[in-house]
Amino acid sequence: MSVQMHWSELIPHAGAMRLLDHVMDWDDRHIHVIAERHRPGHHPLQNGMHLHAVHLTEYGAQASAVHGALLASARGEACVRAGRLVSLRDVQLAIEYVDLAGGHLDVHAECLLADERGAQYLFKVEQRGLALASGRVAVIYTAQ
């Protein structure tokens, strides 16, 4: 009898650095996740009482990791390949600092390319329907 793992057990991010909370929807190309753990004083990347918008790229990278892990699990792969973030491109920041008390973050990622060597994703982070950050992440898989 197989036991289905929770998505958070499939990625290397743990503890306070696991920034995502819920997978809302996903398919073979897209994922939508929610992040709720960015309250003032409780975020591992905040400086004082501020979380700079550049850190939203980590949310996009983690959404990509979750998507890749869910795809691997759906294909029946015994273990998920670890990857390294090697590139951020076309990053657009609409704000300087995230409103830590402004409600959850919606993180969307779309797989542009994935093969045995790595993957590229577009990402977008929104809060209350307002675009905060977007860009592209590239990951190279490490040897197992």
UniProtKB/TrEMBL annotation:
<dbReference type="InterPro" id="IPR016776">
    <property type="entry name" value="ApeP-like_dehydratase"/>
</dbReference>
<dbReference type="InterPro" id="IPR029069">
    <property type="entry name" value="HotDog_dom_sf"/>
</dbReference>
<dbReference type="Pfam" id="PF22817">
    <property type="entry name" value="ApeP-like"/>
</dbReference>
<protein>
    <submittedName>
        <fullName>Phosphotransferase</fullName>
    </submittedName>
</protein>
